Amino acid sequence: MEFDDILPKLGQFGRYQKFVYFMLCIPASLPAVFLTFNQVFMSATPEHWCEIPELKDTNMTLQQRLNLSISRQFRSL
Questions:
Q1: For residues 32-42, b (16+ Cβ closer than 10 Å) or e, as one string?
Q2: Membrane-spanning regions, if any (predicted)?
Q3: Which of 6, 27, 30, 41 is 20 to 30 Å apart from 52, CA to CA?
Q4: pLDDT for 4-21, tens place per residue?
Q5: Are residues 37 and 50 in the same domain?
Q6: What are the φ and ψ backbone dihedral angles of 29, each rounded to 5 degrees?
């Protein structure tokens, strides 16, 4: 007797097989979800700068204030 002959007697794909399938697939797919949505949080770099109160009330455009307030030198920690 071969394995293929036993399968029709046991049942092809019942409740237990579905349960085992989903219990194996759901935990395996959760890390894939985190990797997929990781691009949303890691790819974009928002523009940010320090607000200097002394420059706020001057007659400068936003771009001029940004040019004065953003450091142009790279400093490593």
A1: eeeeeeeeeee
A2: 20-37
A3: 41
A4: 888 788 777 888 888 999
A5: no
A6: -90, -15
